[in-house]
Amino acid sequence: MSIKYWSQIGMGLVVLGFASLVSWYEGSTLLDKSSEWRYSAPFSDMIHGSVQTTHDIVALDFFVYAAKFSPIYPGMMIISASYLAVLIGYRVMKPSSFRISLVLLGMIELALGFAISPSSTSGGNTLFLLFLLTGLIMILLASVLHLLPFVRMKSHWDAK
Q: What is the pLDDT of residue 153?
């Protein structure tokens, strides 16, 4: 595999890791805001019941809080994870399987977007639009790859 492929994988992982760490840090503000525990700690509610102390809060809830109130880095996580999924799928799948996986990933992102669409926060609305956009881009890309099979581009599929 080429250096271009591995450098893209590496950069995608670096961005994903950086955005995850910053989101986790920004979301840790939840520990200081006991008024938000009821609304921004769904994973803790599932595991511990109602949140009573900071020790009851699960780390995943930090990402929920960050997504609601500062969506820049959670958005970077979504974009880099989507990019990595497309990049790896392109490399390891056959063209027909790749198109199907793009449609499935697009539908998953659309479903996630619609799941958070009733959000009352600006961060939730921003992430809704981001999920909607990335989902539609993936489905559109799959459609273009399906509708234009006569266009021969040099790719790793030609070498197989």
A: 53
